[in-house]
Model the fold of this input.
Amino acid sequence: MIHRMMALAPAALAGISLVTFSAAHADDVKLPPTMAMTAYDTGTAGFNITVGVGKMMKDKYGSDVRVLPAGNDVARLAPLRAKRAVASAMGSGTYFAQEGAFEFGAKEWGPQPVQLILSSVDCNCGSLGVAADAGVKEVKDLKGKRVGFVVGSPALNQNSLAVLAFGDLTKNDVKAVEFASYGAMWKGLVNNDVDAAFGTTITGPAKEAETSPRGLMWPPLPKSDTAGWERMKKVGSFFFPQVATCGAGISPQKPIELGNYPYPIFVAYASQPADQVYSITKAMIDGYDAYKDSAPGAGGLGAARQTKNWVVPVHPGAVKALKEAGHWSDEQEVHNNALYKRQEVLAAAWAAYTKANPPSDDAAFLDGWMKSRGDALAKAKMPNGFE
Done:
């Protein structure tokens, strides 16, 4: 049985030992009797997939996995940083955490050395869904249109800005309409309060929009438009071209060229022992058939389906498991080592900035950090990622 624990405050977690690796094992996989993983809120794809992985670990290895739902990226990473969880199922916030951007540019955080275990890419994509009655055919046609943004969700909003950049547009080129939540934004599209909203093609609200009187379409992001993709990756370097074959108004017979990034992304900290992460990764690879159909998107966790050469490095323990499974290359090794170096550059930049008497005001602190961060990356001849 999988224990679905509601999000716990750090104080409540303090008395729970969840990461001592000394128990159940099969072959060379050694998992503890109990461990915790964090995920998105109850009922989301990330939560459901993590529960499916946990059930496999219970059935195959006798390890109880407690899935801790959390509403934002900071809440998901806090138990992992405190060593009260062994993995977190994240989204694009993985990249923002590594870079020390947005909420991770706060004094309490800074760049986080998060590294990949396994991530999922399935038949869906993530992009701006547009009301079919808005007269939009390409992203550039969104100029002057109403585009939804969610207050307090910088990751979601950055995704929208990245897609707009594909069409050579910025936030100033559209009418930004703010909403209190993701769900409210999509309701706004149905209710004609907004013309476009970011989401995954398989999200429930997109399906609702498709069947509404307004209808729904997805402006394509053709891989052949190299200039568009260059602009998009300057704003959202974690995106890559992909053909969507499932989702609202999308099927294998009606595919659309869009963009995507892995979700969920199971991560660990660089400081976690390689043998611990190796066992978790190997268990997920060896037990894939037992959970791949447990929830939509779970099939994307297969070793053969891993995103290669992404923007966050793979943990050494996971690299070992992927090598053994025959899904690692010399090219990936070079790329991965360069990303380890990037995390070192970011950590050094943060240490230097915080020692240099930075502003006490939160907004000024973040502004100063992002400038210092940019300077350090430029000096190291590494891309900024937030131009």
About this structure: Residues 3-121+263-341 form a domain with the D-Maltodextrin-Binding Protein; domain 2 fold (CATH 3.40.190.10). Residues 330-355 form the longest helix (26 residues). The chain has two domains: 3-121+263-341, 126-260. The CA atoms of residues 212 and 326 lie 46 Å apart.
